[in-house]
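Work Package 3 (structural annotation) set out to generate three-dimensional models for the target panel prioritized at the project kickoff. During this period the team completed the workflow that converts sequence records into discrete structure tokens, so that structures can be stored uniformly alongside our sequence database. As a representative example, we reproduce one entry of 454 residues exactly as it appears in the project archive.
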Amino acid sequence: MMSIHTLFRPAATVLPLLALGLWALPAQAGTAADAARLKADLTPFGAEKAGNKDGSIPAWTGGFSGQIAGEKPGGRRGDPFKGEKPLYSVSAANMAQHADKLSDGIKALLRKYPDSYRLDVYRTHRTAMAPQWVYDNTARNATSAELQGHAIKGAYGGIPFPVPKNGLEAIWNHKLAWRGTAWEAELNQYQLTADGKVVLTTDGLIRQRMPYYLEGGSADKFDGYYWEVNLTNAGPPIRAGEMIVGRNHVDDGKSASFVYLTGQRRVRKLPNACCDTPTPASAGLMSFDEIGVFTGKTDLFDWKLVGKKELLLPYHQNRLLGVKDAELVNGRHLDPDHVRWELHRVWVVEATLAAGQRHQAPRSIYYLDEDTWVAMLADRWDAKGQLWKTLWQFNYVMPDVPGTVQQTFGFHDLLAGHGYVANVLGDKRFQHRPTKPWPTDTFTGDGLAAQGVR
């Protein structure tokens, strides 16, 4: 079998590090030369400004600007690329022609569902954007952010490692990707059963805050809590009134989550709210570290920055925000008529189980979009070396954030045949609505005790 290291073109800056284990990596900030590149050949987030050789990936020219026709502030969103038609489609019949642009998991889905699954590929747009203060913080982080074991210090309010030297730095860029400061969304979540049934597991309201991105803050005043979540269930009826809150810290040992169950009428701290433990937010069908493709402890794994490649990604899904859930989620996978794919460059990061650790997926590969640093696809292998799960994430152009922001995500179990899709927004009144930052007690156990009313 061909090694993964023969499949990808390693970036010149990471070649000397490919053989290093995680524990051999010293804490070392970037250089002034790294920061200078963010105003030269790299975007303010560290992506290559230039397009590719054949022009199928254009140059980045500042991201999306302007407004989206028909979009209602604080409500439902519009599609900036309405009317565009696919350039081509990838199916089981022609996947061999596009094999070098497909992840292992997407190839497996094409083979598993040859009569129904396909990729409609559209023109590539590079819409990634952020406020200038986020760019300024990213430039500062380029010379001040450091790893301390698996935690980071000296970073605030921007991408921590825009010119990454190793896989751990790259995955922290994903965990701290720009998505706004505070927002809320109404959403549905669904189980996709192996026999094609669709089961609603969550009808909820989610509120989120990223204290790491509070404007005007600084690294020396940052308390380490970078992402906070509050999810309240309105349905299905058996789960109505359930709530879960969580606060993620740059030192994973300080992260904490609490759950309120209506039958018990009490708040409980989740004893192991991480890793491959099932999360109550998905009715136990998805693990904690599969939220947003990866949201987990990094010290279970050794992280390797394999390099860069061009890959077909699910990208710019604004169109499906106008599609009813029943049209999108209607079988063993999402209806490909409504899913947009584009060719983008990605950083490839490989995670392998560290000595003395345990996890159901001892090996994973993550594909981080170079423009946003968000993991858009990932594949996981089980203890027998079988390709087990493929994970994916959708992003949306949101000029009011501003940004190209992730929201919907899910996975397919390639062995058991079932799947899960989280944060489907098509049936809802508002879709990712920016808000003023919520108070901290919105996301704490004590605050949850005051909120639980059923």
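The chain has six helices and 18 strands.
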